[in-house]
Write a structure and sequence with these properties.
Blueprint lengths: L19 H22 L3 H31 L3 H39 L9 E9 L7 E4 L12 E3 L4 E8 L4 E5 L6 E6 L5 E6 L8 E7 L9 E4 L11 E9 L6 E8 L8 E5 L12 H42 L2
Antiparallel strand pairs: 1-2, 1-12, 2-5, 3-4, 3-12, 4-5, 6-7, 6-9, 7-8, 8-11, 9-10, 10-11
Amino acid sequence: MPLGTLDRTAPPLFNQGPSALSKLIFFSALALFLMVADARFNIVQPLRAGIGAVLYPVQWLALKPVQLALGGGRYLEDLQTAQAKEADARKALALQSERASQADTLAQENARLRSLLELRQVTQTPGRAAEVLYDAADPYTRKLVIDQGLANGIAPGSPVIDEHGVVGQVTQVQPFTSEITLVIDRDLSIPVQNVRTGARSVAFGDASAHGGGLELRFTAANADVQEGDLLTTSGVDGVYPPGLPVAKIDRIDRRADSAFARIHCLPMAHVTAARYVLVLAPTANQMPKPAPPAAADAGAAAKKKADKSGAKGDKAGKGDKADKPAKAEKKEGRTP
């Protein structure tokens, strides 16, 4: 049979619907639509939260062998290492006890000075301890996942610290877990203050090739900045409490062709080796609420009324003083 007479179309039994190209175009358009809708309108967040709640038991079971292995390794530590750690811990405890006594004295003195100057008292920021489960799977971000979530009262935007300084900020909260963006992530910024000079600035996650640190941007080349300066949170953003250690300046690069200096900083916290962290409540939730407008108007009206009463009293007093000499002159004129 000649080849030109052969039928190259598939039999009806093998006809599987749309072609592969049309399926590719359809699912590509659907994926693009879902990405744009999630970025713009956040419509996939409930689905993501539900999937996270369903997969939490699976994550818990998958992490158990790793935790058991780590626990066994810690259990089999050498006795000398354990004794050395105990000695170091006792020394640190003695030092912390001395600092705690000094801190109590300074806190009492600070409270007396604030009451004397009628300044607002510093609010105590509550916190909740959490354990780091694992690093985020995205290789282009620096994030951690902890074992506390909405069920434990964790709120988005909460600052996270360890025993050395600021670790990062809670950026995503699931029912039983939360995601922390580290201070060295390029998408995170923290308002900081130089302890030595008091100058305020903003520290950004270092997005350069070496990474692993922070960068002070838009700092003048002739600014009073030195290597080794300690940077702490300034507290002006309403998220981080003031005075938390953030980073220490490691390298300053001043260029003649630029008006700004490139300042590289090293984080104080163990951002890549943290096991236990403390999640604080945002400072904005602890700020005192302003007085309602009605109360403010009533206070202003009372003050205005008191000022008017004082003005009338002053006028009356001046009138009495002015009338006394006139009365005295009339009395002297009637006397024979």
